[in-house]
Write a structure and sequence with these properties.
By secondary structure, the chain is mostly loops. The protein folds into 2 domains: about 80 residues, 3 Solenoid (Pectate Lyase C-like); about 90 residues, 3 Solenoid (Pectate Lyase C-like). It is about 10% helix and about 5% strand. It has 2 helices and 4 strands; from the N terminus they run H-H-E-E-E-E. The strands form 2 sheets. It has a two-stranded parallel sheet. Strands 3-4 form a two-stranded antiparallel ribbon. A hairpin with a 2-residue loop joins strand 3 and strand 4. The longest helix has 9 residues. It comes from Mariprofundus micogutta. InterPro entries: 5peptide_repeat, Pentapeptide-BTB/POZ_domain. It holds the Pfam family Pentapeptide. This is Secreted effector protein PipB2.
């Protein structure tokens, strides 16, 4: 199946659940609302693509490129996200808003330009993580450990930071309730 055939089927509202789309280049394509659940998307390039509202639960994303991808409202598996993070993937621009990541081991995670608003990170281990330019507004950070993390230019507006270990050095130009936290 070619990229144009896939796009045509998506526009017609057809499901591509379980389809083998290995290695296709979907860069800058509109895949919004697509049902790609359980599909083989290994080696696919989604750079700059619109995956908003798409269902990629259970899809094989091994070797897939998801840089600058619009994933607003994309349905994804929590365990798959955690697996990618622990494998050293950089999660660039992902929408994980409202996700329950409480108590998770997210050490050295690279989650940049991401939407983590309303996320539950209570008790999460984020030591050494890079969350630069991410939105953590309204997130629950109670007891989370950000030792050695980088939170440059993150939005922490109305985030619950009770008992969180967030060193000042991690908060370069972080935005908190209408003010820049630390200017260094």
């Amino acid at each position: 199946m070619t990229v144009s055939e896939v796009i045509a089927q998506i526009k017609e509202g057809k499901s591509l659940a379980g389809a083998d789309l290995t290695g296709l280049d979907f860069s800058s394509q509109d895949l919004s609302g697509a049902d790609l659940s359980g599909a083989n998307l290994s080696g696919c390039n989604f750079s700059g693509a619109n995956l908003s509202g798409a269902d990629i639960r259970g899809a094989n994303l091994n070797g897939a490129t998801l840089i600058n991808t619009n994933q607003n409202g994309t349905k994804i598996d929590l365990q798959r996200v955690l697996s990618r993070i622990s494998s050293g993937w950089t999660m660039d621009g992902v929408d994980l808003s409202g996700m329950d990541l409480s108590g998770q081991d997210l050490r050295n995670a690279k989650i940049i330009y991401a939407n983590l608003s309303g996320c539950n990170l209570e008790g999460a281990d984020l030591r050494g993580a890079t969350l630069n330019e991410s939105d953590l507004s309204l997130a629950n950070l109670t007891g989370a450990d950000f030792s050695g993390a980088s939170l440059k230019r993150v939005n922490l507006t109305r985030a619950n930071r009770t008992g969180a270990k967030i060193p000042k050095s991690a908060l370069k130009k972080a935005y908190i309730a209408g003010a820049t936290a630390y200017r260094s």
